Amino acid sequence: MANYHNNFSKSEGTSISNKVSQIPEYIRVIITTVSDPLSKHLIFANSKCKLDSHGRKRELLIPASLDLDRPKRPRITFQNWQIEAMEQEFQSNPFITEERRRLLANTVGITETQVKVWFQNRRTKVRKMKC
């Protein structure tokens, strides 16, 4: 892997796509353009990428295991009565047991995972409000 990294750092004038044979199969190259010159520093800040001479074209190296074509899951919005039930349980104990989580999930009609994540997020909210 050290040779792979060194080859890229030495060849600044050569685009990544010209070195496809040296890219491991677990890396995916994506070429995209950035229309807003100010956003070029914001997009994929932690990715290894190159810009074209105008600073617009990006060649991104990302893990091939990322499924970029998969649609995002829709955001879950809870109804007021569901939030009230979880809030009431949270006031009695901010750390819910497995048994209480299962019972609460069945009562309000959501999954145990959703209850668990709601409690995690609620504890985070309490910590942030204390600061």
Characterization of this structure:
This is Homeobox protein ceh-5. GO terms for molecular function: DNA-binding transcription factor activity, RNA polymerase II-specific; RNA polymerase II cis-regulatory region sequence-specific DNA binding. One of its GO terms (cellular component) is nucleus. It holds the Pfam family Homeodomain. Keywords: DNA-binding, Homeobox, Nucleus. By secondary structure, the protein is of the alpha+beta class. It has 2 domains: 2-63, no CATH class; 80-130, Homeodomain-like (Arc Repressor Mutant, subunit A, Orthogonal Bundle). The protein has helices at residues 2-10, 80-92, 98-108, 112-130, and strands at residues 27-33, 48-51, 57-63. A 3-stranded antiparallel beta sheet has the order 1-3-2, with no helix packed on it. A hairpin with a 5-residue loop joins strand 2 (48-51) and strand 3. Helix 3 crosses helix 4. It is elongated, with a radius of gyration of 23 Å.
Regions with little confidence, pLDDT below 50 for 5+ residues = 1-14, 40-46
Distance linking N and C termini: 43 Å
Mean of all residue-level pLDDT scores: 76
- Biggest sheet, spatial arrangement of strands: 1-3-2
Instruction: Give Rg in angstroms.
Output: 23 Å
Class per helix and strand makeup: alpha+beta
